[in-house]
């Protein structure tokens, strides 16, 4: 119906003493709360925005993406109705990824990395475009250092394998004494780390740690789990270090602490910094301050 015809019919109805039902104007969407962060803790009643909706936590939660059944309650659309940027629009293109890792093992696929991003959507998706690219470069630089340029899937020193079972843990080492060696892009090791990562990701890695070396998406997810939720021997998570401006050096501290920082192994620190500088150049952003730890 044209606007002119609609107006004429409304006027006729009023003149005839009829009730006119006027279509309601679309309700304005609520303001969006602060964007959800996979590294933040939310208690019952806290509200965060995600993908164009506000979500209220039903109880204590960390890392569970809004929309997870039984954890978050949908409070309806917010803002303009346009979804917030999702991890599918990763700031590193496949061509740039291949440029960063020209000799990578075929196991470490770009598609596997993109599939893993849904587990931690705040990763490389927080702050300005520059910060997003700096965080992606920082993660991939540390990953490159840990794996020899994404060449190694598992820890190369097999003599270390039996040493990663902490028998004091109540759950023990059900996969075997020597099953929890380093795997994946950040070389996840120790039974307690496999337990914690598996619990966070909803995967039983304590009983099947080999899945990290079989499934590229799972391998990448374990790396993102550490990056986004663990501060290790550092003062903050690597994600927070990059998003809050603490700098690349703090990501090194969160991964290896004084083993490399404070003069522990300056050559290893320099190796990580060199890779970060190269990757930020590929992505076309400055490195930011505080490169060293």
TrEMBL record:
The keyword Disulfide bond applies. InterPro entries: CBM5/12, CBM_sf_5/12, Glyco_hydro_19, Glyco_hydro_19_cat, Lysozyme-like_dom_sf. Residues 33-75 form the Chitin-binding type-3 domain. Coiled coil: none annotated. Keywords: Disulfide bond, Hydrolase, Plant defense, Signal. It comes from the Bacteria. This is Chitinase. It comes from Streptomyces pactum.
